[in-house]
Amino acid sequence: LDDSITHEDRQKTRKKIRDLHQRNREQRTELENIKNGLLIERFEEAEKLNEEEVHFPSEAMVELENQATLTEIADNGIKGRAQSVDITMDQFLNGLLDRFSDGEDSIDWTEVGKVGAEFLAAVPPTNFLSGQIKKDFVPRQQKQRSRQKKRKVDAPQTAPKEVQDADKEEKSHTEGRVHQLRKLMKRGAKEPVNLYRVIVNPDSFSQTVENLFDLSFLIKIGKVSRIVMSDEEQGVPYVQYHDFTKLENADTIPKHQGIVKMDYKLYRACLEKYEIKDPFVRTRPMEQE
Would you state the torsion angle of the CA atoms of residues 205, 210, 212, 217, taken in this order, to the nearest 10 degrees? Predict the structure, then answer.
């Protein structure tokens, strides 16, 4: 878009477009008479206006209506002229004789065909060809297809066994962590303990997340209970070792769980607030960072 075009320029352009549209409507009868050449002049005027002064979509849409109106007028003019043509067969034959006579009061139909070919021929003629198209036939060679080798079903399948062994090892590792945490809770959390003092490991953020996962599992199976203390901690969750599975009504006791967010920012904040120096769960050698 041209930034130099002012609002006044756009108003002038719109006025020219409206004036042109009004003249097309008022002179519709004269425009449909395509022999006088007025329609062609009006098309040229509209095209010049579109190229030189129309620069914005709003003006272009109005100009498009002008083009559509002129096209409709041209279509009606051509149809009206075609319907008004009245020629007899004698007049048609006499016109052919005057134009394509062979000098013996007969029509040279070969010449008629040459002139009318470009208007009537649906298929291009073949007179442009320089000769016969000849192509030697080359038989297609049949390739010998090799039989696909069958896969040996008795081959050793090592991959599934390795995956199964890895799953068993991971499951055993997780169960070992949960068992160790349960023993630590039984020994050191018979009274309510701050949740973050249990799970936060000052030496490893990843082990802190693992501790949170393991503790949530103990709560789920009824080995640890979650408590909210209404003291100076202001709603910080506490946990306490309590084996519900040994009670007679263990199946009816609800095992509540909660959602605790743990990201690195909260991890650092807990270290500073609670001044945690020694982890509740011993740092595993493979997990040190």
Answer: 180
